[in-house]
Design a protein that fits this description.
With 158 residues, this protein is mainly β. It has one domain. It has one helix spanning 65-68; strands at 16-21, 30-36, 51-54, 57-62, 71-78, 81-89, 108-112, 115-120, 133-138, 147-149, 152-154. The strands form three sheets. A five-stranded mixed beta sheet has the order 3-4-5-6-10, with no helix packed on it. It has a four-stranded antiparallel beta sheet with strand order 7-8-9-11, with no helix packed on it.
């Protein structure tokens, strides 16, 4: 059931720092390269809960976005730095109801090439309450749109 509160609020992040390292003998100096903040950022969204990157593209999850509905943000590195290019959401996502949390889309996140996968462990479907789902997003030929829902949803049979 979704009766448990959102997890690990002590680990919440409101922004994400992209770090770069330089070469040194005996130590690797690290400095902040960019600070990524979602265009629609708000307190408690858990932006930065999971971060995954591949080349010049990064996906940053925010599982508590909109009170637990969840989302993820796609950033691309350009000559002028890192820019938010897309917000990923679930077409069937459900937010909190009756004091229970939402689906928590973005509790898990990974990117490989043009494909992003996001976990929503509290998603309800035919497999039962909180049986979870995995949402797959494939970058369209024209690039990541400003807002996008999943290309396909994967669930365990139930």
């Amino acid at each position: 059931m979704k009766s448990r509160k959102h997890f690990y609020y002590s680990r919440l992040f409101s922004s994400l720092f992209i770090l770069s390292s330089g070469a040194a003998i005996g130590a690797i100096p690290v400095s902040s390269q960019s600070k990524l903040i979602a265009d629609d950022a708000f307190s408690g969204s858990a932006h930065g809960w999971v971060v995954s990157s591949d080349g010049d593209t990064a996906v940053v999850s925010a599982f508590a976005d909109y009170d637990g509905l969840g989302a993820a943000y796609v950033y691309e590195r350009t000559a002028s730095g890192w820019q938010q290019v897309s917000k990923l959401t679930a077409s069937d996502g459900s937010g909190p109801a009756n004091g229970e949390p939402g689906d928590s889309l973005g509790m898990g996140a990974s990117i490989s090439g043009n494909t992003i996968v996001l976990g929503a462990p509290l998603n309800d479907h035919s497999g039962g309450t909180d049986s979870g789902g995995v949402y797959v997003y494939v970058k369209p030929a024209g690039g990541w749109p400003a807002a996008m829902t999943e290309t396909v949803k994967l669930t365990a049979p139930g």
